[in-house]
Structure formats: C-alpha cells, structure tokens
Amino acid sequence: MELIKALQNEDELVWINPKYGKETKKMDQLSMKDVEDAEDRLQRFAPFIEKCFPETKEAHGIIESPLCEIKEMAKNSNIGGRLFLKMDSHLPIAGSVKARGGIYEVLKHTEDLAFENGFLTEDENYAKLAETKYREFFSQYTVQVGSTGNLGLSIGIASAAIGYQVIVHMSADAKQWKKDLLRSHGVTVMEYESDYSAAVKNGRILSDADPKSYFVDDENSKNLFLGYAVAAKRLKAQLQKKQIQVDQEHPLFVYIPCGVGGAPGGVTYGLKEMFGENVHCFFIEPTQAPCMLLGMATGKQNEICVQDIGLSGLTEADGLAVGRPSGFVGKVMETRLSGIFTIEDKKLYDYMRRLKKTECIFLEPSACAAFEGPIKIQKYEEAQKYLIEHNLKEKMDKAVHIAWATGGSLVPEEIQTIYENTYFEN
Ligand SMILES: *Cc1c(COP(=O)(O)O)cnc(C)c1O
Fold this sequence. Notes:
By secondary structure, the chain is of the alpha/beta class. It contains 17 helices and 11 strands. It has helices at about 1-10, 30-50, 70-75, 100-115, 130-140, 150-160, 175-185, 195-210, 220-240, 260-275, 290-300, 325-335, 345-360, 365-370, 370-375, 380-390, 415-420, and strands spanning about 15, 65-70, 80-85, 140-145, 165-170, 190, 215, 250-255, 280-285, 340-345, 400-405. β8, α10 (about 260-275) and β9 form a beta-alpha-beta unit. The structure holds pyridoxal-5'-phosphate. Pyridoxal-5'-phosphate (PLP) binds near residues 319 and 407.
C-alpha cells in the first residue's frame, strides 16, 4: 500500500477515511443515553469536587474549560472562517483533556463502591464522601493505571483526593515533572524502561492479582470514553451562548490530537451525536506514532502497531506516544471520523511558539498537534477532495474551526522555557 510507504517514510500527510458517513449496521455498544448518564453522574459529584478542589468553586464543581477565539493565530495562518481554541489545557485539577475521562472513571468506580456498600444514594449530597470515615473506607482499595503521563496525573490526583491507594505505571516517555508531581500527591509511581504497552501490561497483571485493586484500562474503557464524550454536550451549550452557529451553511471542523484514541474518540462520538453531518472531526498523530491511522486504514485496528511497519513510536509528544491504538475506539470511529493528519515533532514546537507569541497562551507540545488541521486542511489535495465531495468548499469562509488544546497548564515554568527554546536540526 502506498499509504504504508508514506508512513514508513515519516511523511506528513492526511488520510481521508473512505468509510466516513457510510451507513453501517448499528453495532455500537454505546448510545447517547450513556453519555447523558455520565453527565448526570458528574453533576451528582459536583458538590464533592467543589469541596476537594477549590479551583472548581466558581463553576460549582463542574470541570469545564473555556472556548476562546484565537484571531491572531488564524490571521497568521490564512484560515478561512473563524478559529477557536478549546482550552482543555486549562481544565482544573489535571490540566489536560484527561481531567474529563480520567476523573470521570474514578468517580464512577467510587459511586459503584459506595452504592454496593450501602452508604450513598443518588439523591444525597455527595460532598459527604470527603469525610474521614469514607476516606478511610476507600483507602482499603487501590486504583492502578498505565500512562504516558497525563492520564496518570488525572487518575492519580483524583484517586488520591478520594482516599484510594494509587499506583501509576509510567512508560519511558513520561516526563520527570509529571512523576514528581504525582509523588507529591502521595501516588506510587512505577517506572518502565519500555514503552506504554509494557507499562499497561504489567500494571494490569499487578492489579488483577489484588482483589481490592481496580485497573483503569485506557485501551478499552467505556467509562473513560463516556467521560470524554460529555465534552460535546458542554461545547454545544458554549457555542450557543456565544451565538456561534453550526448548521448546513456553517460547518464545524474539530481537530484533536490522538494517542490511544479514547479522548479524541469520545469527544468525536459526542460531537457526531450533537451535530451530525454538520461537524467534521479530524485527529492528528505524530509521524512516528500514527497508530490510529494505521489501525483504521488497514482495518486491523489494535492488531497492528507502528513498530510492525518499522516506526519507533517515539515522539516528543509524550501524550501521543502510543504505538497501538484502541480497537474499540477504532471501530466506533469507522464511519464517524473524517480523517487523520500526521505531523512532525519539530512543528509542534513551532506551533507552540507561534501561539505563545500571538495569543499569549502556552500549550504542551502534544496539544499543539491540533493546529496542523486548520492550517493544512486547505493545502492537501485529498482534503480538498473531501471538502468538494461534501459541498463544503464554498462554505469555508463561514466555517468554524476548533483546535482542541489537550494539555499544558500544569507544565512547570522552567520546563515551558526549555520547550520554548527547543529547536530541531533538519
Ligand atoms: C492523552 C492525550 C491526548 C490523546 O488522548 P488519547 O486518549 O490517548 O488518544 C492528546 N493530548 C494530550 C496532551 C494528552 O495527554
């Protein structure tokens, strides 16, 4: 296949999903009802979140991020229509998109345990879970997760707040400051020389051996996915509040950096439910770790990894350094995802500097992958074909583009400075 050759070559490219929009047998294990159920659960936990995390006080315990227009960045890049930044980089508690799925999963597990043990009902005020006797109850249990960094931060911080023992299994890509931050919350960090898959595998074995341990499975978890999907309902309300139209004449384009697929997949699932054919979702992956592209384009999903075609899977974008995609997400995306862009590492830093300079906003390199979408969609021939096929070409000056900023606000200042001074040889 020509595409495989281009991937092996580490070429930047766009892959347009040939199955996009096709009718398929309804075989999803999920529905919008599950997303609404997740949203209700987050609402029930809001008084508890507000109590444990004072930074959520203003939003009354709802973990949400701003949507802001970035006109200067758009001007600089010749984007037709308006460009917005969905600032999950500034989500409270975990400073990344993982504050959606990761924290939701911990809360779901907590509610399950509390219900099973008969000390909580749905209509009580969940703030009581912060009392010492409940913290002591939860401290008999352990939560474990494998992570390249940000998922560990979100699961670790949320679990520690409830009172669980927490073990985060971290791959070689994980940044030192993330390990340090977790340890400061009393989290046990186990480090692995190898990549993400190995950290997950060992974490799962250790967790399975302990009946009081719960393993957060980034590759297959429906709960994580649903936590991410809630973002779509919240975004719809945000757009309405700002009187930003999304309809036949005003298409919405959303660009989300992709690792294993859960975060961008969950958000995309929700957005397609909300906006149907008026929203066009694209993922962006590093040229060294295009795992979702490889899985979806070959149809092999999680039965193929980037190492199988000779790529290293190593990238500066630690949040995206995943060699094997989630098979579950790949299948759900089969007819919903419009396409996937790939991006070279060095450009992540260029976009990062440009955003800082034009908008005074800092994002971590992984998150900056999002800009490749709005900037390149008008440039690739395949993407042009997509726009023409879907009658979008003449509507592009009325389009709304959202770059999904997946992380950054917890990056320590001295590390930000190092990033800002990182340049690559050609
Ligand atoms: C985790 C992460 C992603 C991608 O999420 P996946 O669920 O792994 O696909 C993107 N950006 C950042 C900063 C992340 O931490």
